[in-house]
Amino acid sequence: MSETPEGPVHPEPPETPQTDLAVTERHAEPCATRQTDLVPDPAPGSLSTGLDAGFDAGFDAGFRADRRAAELRDYRAAFRAAQLAMAVVDQDGIVVTANDSLGTLLGTEAGALREQAAADLVDLASDGRTWHAYHEVLRGRRSRFRCTRRLKHPDGRSLWAEVTVSPVPDSRSVLLSIADVSDRRELQARLRHLQMHDPVTRLPNRALFFERLSSALEAAAQDTDPPYESDEPHQAHQSHESCKSHQSHESYGYGRTGRIGLCYLDLDGFKAVNDTLGHRVGDRLLAAVAARLTECADSDGYTRSGGHLVARLGGDEFAILVEDSTGTEQLADLARSVLCALQSPFDLGGQRLSVSASIGVVERTAHGTTATALMQAADTTLYWAKADGKARWTLFDPERNAHRMTRQALSSTLRPAVERGEFGLEYQPLVDLTDGAVRGVEALVRWNHPQFGSLPPNRFIGIAEEDGSIVELGRWVLRTACRQARQWQKDHPRERPIFVSVNVAVRQVWDSDLVADVAGILAETGLAPHLLQLELTESAVMGSAGRPLQALKALSDMGVRIAIDDFGTGYSNLAYLSRLPVSVLKLDGSFVRGFQDEEHPNPADELIVEALVQLAHRLGLTVTAECVETSGQAARLRRIGCDTGQGWLYSRAVAPDRIAELIRTEPLRV
């Protein structure tokens, strides 16, 4: 046996009959004889066995090398032919090789991309966060990262690319792949536009408005040096030019003021347009209003963020957001221009419609302001504009808002306060002007608030009427006053009993059975009906019809006295007065205050009061004058013929024990 460079050779076997037979048989039945029958197996451990093993190992290594080379050729071919743009990048961020798709995407030859910085090709150095993530992948500290970049093609068009960088296995290189997602981005942009814009007016909707507002406030929050803010509140028609210049150039940079403004407007009477002319006309009116608002915003100028944002927040509510505003004067001018623009009638397919708007204006420092707080202030100010008469703009007033917040706090705790017994009564005497005797008292409720102290009725009665708690509170006042009047009568049996006058709101008549309540309380306390007087305001009594009028008549038939409070400030319908079951007129204090100047009296005031007194007496009514503060006023009222007086000349509202003292003493001065 011998060896050759190609490998070991097996020895030939000796010629034997068996071999010939095997050959003959092999030719006769080629499929029945194996080659192993011709060559005897080598003995274990022989040289032939080692040569076989070496041959197999060499063959496997060569096969694997050939296979690997073939795979690499396939990989390179796939890399070059791939539709996805790709490049292999080394540890330094330099392109090693790129495929044709990347060259086509970037408008150049693939070979021209070699030796170029990959970050420059796809703008990975434009922001620090992306640049850091890219380098983390190059250094093997991060498995992959993905970002989206807007690239500029050499032909001038722009395209959106999704860039992915990931390590190549068993290599120090990374694979950069770039997918053109322009179509997807365009579709997403169209869908976002539909999602963020109102279909009727084509304006940004509520979602986009709050997104823009939040972005503006977040940008202001990133400024660590907020502008100087005076303790004085900003007032309308006041210039801040000197402050503006300092803020813009030093604190926030050129073109920035660190302030934000908002005009929040609502169309007056728009519901009537929808109800009478239909929603189609209403929608066309909204679109026309939106166009005029946009014109006003565009004419007001541009800021670093572009033009002012005009948005439809819903229904007939619109908002104009002014970023980097220059002060309240700018917002006031914008609001005035909007009101002026809306004054001209709208021609909608042959129909001419006129519309007005109420605008709430807020302008303040953006630093420290939240979107919720800004919108709450704008909504409150819009409500003020509506309440002040509509078709106007109103500037946010912190002091007025504080009063509103207090009112809200009172409203939320009023009903529980009735249940907790936080209310008390004081009484102010009603004095006979002829002899100075105390004929009666008016019960005045006080709220002993745990936070705000003792509150007079004008601080909470209106709230109680709005939320309905006046019914329960009024019932408590009526019962307490009647019980106290009866107690005075028991304590002073020899004195002439005094009547008690209790104020009643119209809602008590509508929301409760006032007649039944009065009858039950009189029976419970034992007070005679003629010692109870119920006071209603003139506007409430004069407008009474149906159930309220029936209740007043039933109370009068019961023997309860009915008084009209603040007479002369409401309807003053004298003809209607004769048909009401009224016993007493209480003249409003504005008439009596006209008597204060005794040296230069106003003859007209005296003539009016005298005429009212004479008219009341002819109708069988008695007259009480409110707000009597001087003896001169009392003398003139007595001369005119007024029956009783009430005011600080005699006494302020006092506790029940003080009234008991007045009953025992001599008549008060008249």
TrEMBL record:
Residues 145-193 form the PAC domain. Residues 231-249 have a biased composition (Basic and acidic residues). Residues 258-398 form the GGDEF domain. InterPro entries: Biofilm_reg_signaling, EAL_dom, EAL_sf, GGDEF_dom, Nucleotide_cyclase, PAC, PAS, PAS-assoc_C. It holds the Pfam family GGDEF. Residues 407-667 form the EAL domain. It comes from the Bacteria. Residues 26-50, 221-250 are annotated as: Disordered. PANTHER family: BIOFILM ARCHITECTURE MAINTENANCE PROTEIN MBAA, DIGUANYLATE CYCLASE DGCP. This is EAL domain-containing protein.
